[in-house]
Amino acid sequence: MPTHHTLVHLAAADAVAARAGVAATELKVEAPPRPELGDLAVGCFAIAKARKQNPAQVAQELAASIAPGGMIASASAAGPFVNFKLDRAATFRWVIDAALRGTLIPREVGAGKTICIDYSSPNISKHLAYHHIRGTTIGHALAQISRALGYRVVGINFLGDWGATHGMVIAAYEKWGADEPLDVTKLNDLYVRFREAAKDNPYVEQEGRNAFKRLEDGDPKTRELWQRFRDISWAEFEDIYRLLGIEFDEVRGESAYEADMPRVFDELRPLLTESEGAQVVSLEGEKTPILLKTKDGTTLYATRDVAAAEYRWANYQFTRSLYVVDRGQALHFRQLFKLLKKAGHAWADRCEHVPYGLIRVAGKRSATRLGGVVLMRDVFRIAEEEVRQVIAEVNPSLPAEVVSDVAIKVGIGAVVFANLATHRDKDIDFDLDKAIALEGDSGPYVQYSHARCASIARKAGETVSSVDGVDFGKLAHDAEWAVAKKLLELPELVVRAGEHSEPHLVCHYLLSLAGEFSRWYTLGNGDPSLRVLVDDAATRRARLALVAAVQATLASGLALIGIAAPDQM
Q: What would the DSSP string read from start to end of 488-500?
C-alpha cells in the first residue's frame, strides 16, 4: 500500500526517489531512533535489493548526491538509511500553516470511497447501559476519523428491534400490563419478569415465541405494541446520542429486513440443509453450521444480517463495511462473512468485524461512587458532578454558567477518553479518579492543554490565524522543534488509526502532543526569555503561531474521537 506523505516527508522521499528511480510513495519515511541522527530517515533496503547492492553502500551514494534545498537542510548516510535534517524555519512555516488551515490530515486517502460503520446498535426495550459505551464511542471515533480522511461515511445504527426477545416483552405486557406512562425501565422490568417466569414454565416460554410469530405474521395489534416499544426506546437512546454529539446517517433496525426474508431464503436455498427441523448452512472450517431459521419457522439475527449486508452493498457500494461489535460475537461474524462469500458475494472480503473488549469498574472507591450504576447517562452525570468540583477548585474565578458547560464537556470527555485510550481488543478497568484527573493519561489533561493554549491567546490579546508575516527563524529552541515534529506525526498516525480501526492511537498522540507542548511552555518558568509572551514582538508572534497550531491540532484531534475542546477550564 502506498505511503501518504506530508509535504515535508515528501521532500525527503522525493530526494531519494529522484536519484533511485522509484516512486516516492513507495518509500517509507520515519523518524531516526535518536534526534542527533536527524529529523527524518528513508530506508534503502528495497532499492538495494533491486540493484543487488549493499543497502549501506546505496545509502552513502544517495546521500552524497542530495544537495540542500527547500525543506532539506542536509542529507547523510547512517547504515542503510539516508538521514535528513530539515530546514527548521521552512518546516515550521509549512506545518503551522497546515495546522491552522486544517489541512494536516490527508483527505485524499478516502476520496471517492465509501465506508459503512455499524455501531452502537442497542436492543429496544432495554436501556443504553454502560457496557454499550465502548462500541458506541469506538464506532463514532472511526466514523469521525474516516470523515477526516475524506471517506463518504455511512454511520449505521442497526437497532436490535426484532427477534424472540421482543416477543417476550410483548407477551409480558399482554400478560401483566404496566403502569403509564410507559418507559424503557418498565419495558426492561417486563422482560426480566418474563424470563424469570419462563424458567420453570414451558408454557410461558411458548407464549413469547407465539407473540414473536404473530409479530412476524403481521398481526396489527402486536405490530402496534411493538412500534410503541420501539418509539419509546429510540427517544431515550437519542437523548444519550445527543450528549455524545452522535448523529447516525442511517437508523435501520433488524425489522427493516423482515420483508427480505423470503428473497434471502430463495437465494440461499441451494446451500440450506435441515438440522433438527431448523434451516442451516454448513461452512468450511467451522465445527457448527450457521443457523438461519428455527424449527418454529422464525428468522434469526444471522438471516437479517445477510439481508442488511446485501442492502448496504446495493445502496452504498462500500470500500469497507465495519461491524463494531464486542469480541464475543467473533464466531457470528466469521460465519456471516463466510456465508456471504459462499452465496457468491465477492464483496464479502470488504466486510470486517471490529471487536472490542469488556469494560469493568476498577477500584473500590470508584465502584462505591458509581454504586452499581449500569446506565450510560448516569455514569456521565456522576462524572460531570465530580469534574464540576475539580474545576471549581482549580479555577474558582470561572463564572457558574461556564463551569456548568465545561463540566458537561469534560465529564463526558473523560469517560469517552477512558474507553478509547486502551487498545480496543483489550478489556479495560474504568477508574473514575484516573478518568477525571487533570494530570496523567486522561481526556481532561488533553482538554486542559487546549484550554491553556486558548488562555495564552487571550492573555496576548490576539489569536494567530495565519503564518503571513511571521518570522519562524525566531523559533530556535529544541523544545519548540520537538513540538513541530510532533505536529508532523499527525497525518500518518490518523491514516494508521483509520486503516487498522484503532482510535487509541489518536488518544496516545494527543497525550504526547500535550506533553511536548507542556515541556516547551513551562521552560519559561525558569527562563523568562523562553516565555511565549516575551517583549520581542517577532519572537512573541512566532511562538503564538506555534501555540495556535497546537491548539488547532488538539481541537481537531479531540474531534476525531468525539470529544469537545473547551477554551476555559
A: HHHHHHHHHHHHT
